[in-house]
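Changelog note: in this version the structure field was regenerated for every chain. One regenerated record is shown below for reference.
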Amino acid sequence: MKIFGIVSCNTHVNFTNYGSALQSWALCRSVENLGYVAKLVDYCPPMMEDRDVLNPLKHMWDTDEDSRRNLELTMPALRVNFHKFDNFYNRRFQKTKKSYTSRDFNDIVDDEAIDGFVCGSDTIFCIDEWNGFEDAYFAEYPCMKNGYAVSYAASFGDAHFDEHTYEVLKQRLNNFKALGIRENKMIPFIQENTKIPAFRTIDPTLLLKADDYKEITAPKMENEKYLLLYARRYNKKMFDFADKLAEQNGWKVIDISLRAENAGKHRMAYDAGVEEFLSLVKHSEYVVTNSFHAIIFATQFCRPFVAFSRDYGDSKIAELLSLFDLSDRLLVNVDEELTDSIDFDAVQERLTPYRVDSINFLKKELDGISL
C-alpha cells in the first residue's frame, strides 16, 4: 500500500488555525478513502523555526498597541487552545515519527518509507505569507522532484509576483507531476508557462460531506441561541454588524477572536479546540466571519452566514463564494438588505461535479506515482 506524505502548514505556526487543521484532516481522510496511507509530515519551514504559539507577540501582523494589549489578555485562552490543537494532531492523524526541517527533509523517504508527496491545501503558494518560495510547499527538495509530488488545492492567496519571482515560479512549478489548484486565477499562467497539467480542485474539506465530520465534532455546547463571530483579522464593521444582528434576534454572541476586550458583552471562545469549533458552527443560528474555512463549514452544516473582507484573504473568499454561487454573502455595505435564505441543497448540487472531478484528479495522479 502506497504511503503519501501530506505537506502543508499545520503545527509550526504563529497562531493555531482551524482551517489548517481541518483541511489537513480532510485531505488525509480523502487519500485514505482512495486506498492509500496518508502521513501528515511534521515539517517546520525555516521562517517558522523561531515562532512559538505560546509566545506569538513578536511575529503578530497587527502591531498597534490595542491589538497587542488584546493579545496579552487572550493568552490564557490561547494556551488552552494550543494544548487542544496539539491533542487533535496527535490523536487524529498518522504523523511522521519526527519533525523535519530544511536540514534533514530528504531523510524522510527512508525514515518513513514515503512513496510520494501531496502538497496542500491552503495558501502554500502565497510567497507574501512565506517570505518567498517555501521549499517543501513547492516540492523543491530532491526527494520530491521528478514526479514524486503533486499539489492538491494549493492556493496562491493574494500573492504578488514581479518579473523575477515569476521566473522562479515557473521553475518551482515544474517540480510537480501535476498541479491541483484551489482558485482559477493562476491556472492560465501555469498552462502558458509550464508543461505540468493543472486543474482546479476544491478544498479538501469539501471532498467530504457533513456526516463525515461527526466523529470529530464535539457535542452541542450551548443551550441558548447564539451567533458565532469568528475573526481571522480584526474588522470593526464586522464586529459591529454581528452585535447589531444578535441584538435584533435576541441571540448571544460567541466570539472566537483576539479581541479579549469584548468579554463584557460576548462569550469569548478562543480556547475552543478543533472539535469544539465544528460544534460551535454546527449549532449556531448564524455565522459572521472573514475566515475561508468558517464559510465552508457554515455551508457544510447549512448555517446562514455572512462574510467580510480580510487582508490576504479576499481573492480566495471571493472565488469560494463564486463556486457556491453565493457571492452576495460577501457584505461590503453593512446597511444593505441581506436575505437569510440560502438554498444549501443547490450549493451541494453545484459542488457535486467539482467533488467528483477533484477526487478523480487525486486518484489518477497518486496512482501514477511509483518509486
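Spot check on this record: DSSP finds ten helices and eleven strands in the chain. The mean pLDDT is 94.
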